[in-house]
Task: inverse folding
């Protein structure tokens, strides 16, 4: 979309999928603003900080810029986008990945038997994705280009880990669909997609598997690397057919096959349909304004 190296924001990038996506974009020379709350080791039970990710982005060939941002705080989010626009003059890619994930999410019990804090996925997840996209849209519509990505998963279409998780994932997919409709209605060249990621072999998942191999051990053979979705996003950003894909929920592993993206050793991850027999929800094209 632009001739110069793209400017990207990846939210929730201290660790996990966000870190992997940021590093993958760095491999392609992007300037990546890495956001999150973890500034020092010990800020979170799992390893990783925004500064470590930013350094990894730079080491990969891009430019990593760490910005401490609590995506539950609208003022901090506004300051983030003001900083990017002041320093770069544009924004090409926004990856909405920040989410309030707690260990209790994967523990046994019905939703009412678990802590109420799990509802935070609707705040730092659905709402925070809306807020970040609102700010991004104000920049991208002025420059008349850009790509907004929501990281999602097949739990949008089947039961997975309880209603808060499900609401978060389907919320990502529906926001992509509706935001794309608004960009089209306004005649703006801004694309929005939601990407179903597979099980990611992150530090969190490694710990979950180690804690209960009987229940979760099978995931190891199906996992995607944390960088995999970043490579998919890069492929989408340069796809001349991206406008036609805007508003879609895309299965990352399917799109990767289209672009010839593989994991280390040439492995191609299985899709959600192959593993679970589930595909993204087809939202109805009717429009009421």
Result:
């Amino acid at each position: 979309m632009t001739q110069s190296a793209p400017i990207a924001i990846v939210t929730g990038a201290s660790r996990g999928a966000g870190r992997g996506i940021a590093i993958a974009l760095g491999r392609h020379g992007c300037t990546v603003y890495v956001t999150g709350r973890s500034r020092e080791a010990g800020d979170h039970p799992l390893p990783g900080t925004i500064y470590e990710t930013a350094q990894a982005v730079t080491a990969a060939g891009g430019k990593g810029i760490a910005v401490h941002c609590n995506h539950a705080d609208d003022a901090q989010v506004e300051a983030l986008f003001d900083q990017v626009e002041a320093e770069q003059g544009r924004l090409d890619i926004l990856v909405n990945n920040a989410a309030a994930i707690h260990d209790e999410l994967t523990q046994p019990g019905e939703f009412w038997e678990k802590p109420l804090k799990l509802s935070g996925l609707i705040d730092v997840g659905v709402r925070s994705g809306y807020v970040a996209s609102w700010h991004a849209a104000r920049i991208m519509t002025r420059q008349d280009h850009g790509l907004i990505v929501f990281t999602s998963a097949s739990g949008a279409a089947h039961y997975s880990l309880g209603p808060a998780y499900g609401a978060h994932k389907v919320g990502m997919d529906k926001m992509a669909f509706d935001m794309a409709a608004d960009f089209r209605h306004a005649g703006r060249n801004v694309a929005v997609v939601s990407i179903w990621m597979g099980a990611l072999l992150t530090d969190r998942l490694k710990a979950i598997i180690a804690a209960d191999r009987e229940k979760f051990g099978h995931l190891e053979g199906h996992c995607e690397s944390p960088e995999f979705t970043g490579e998919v996003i890069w492929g989408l950003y340069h796809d001349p057919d991206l406008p036609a894909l805007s508003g879609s929920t895309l299965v990352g592993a399917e799109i990767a096959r289209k672009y010839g993206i593989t994991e280390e050793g040439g492995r191609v991850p299985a899709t959600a349909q192959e593993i679970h027999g589930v595909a993204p929800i087809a939202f109805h094209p009717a429009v009421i304004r």
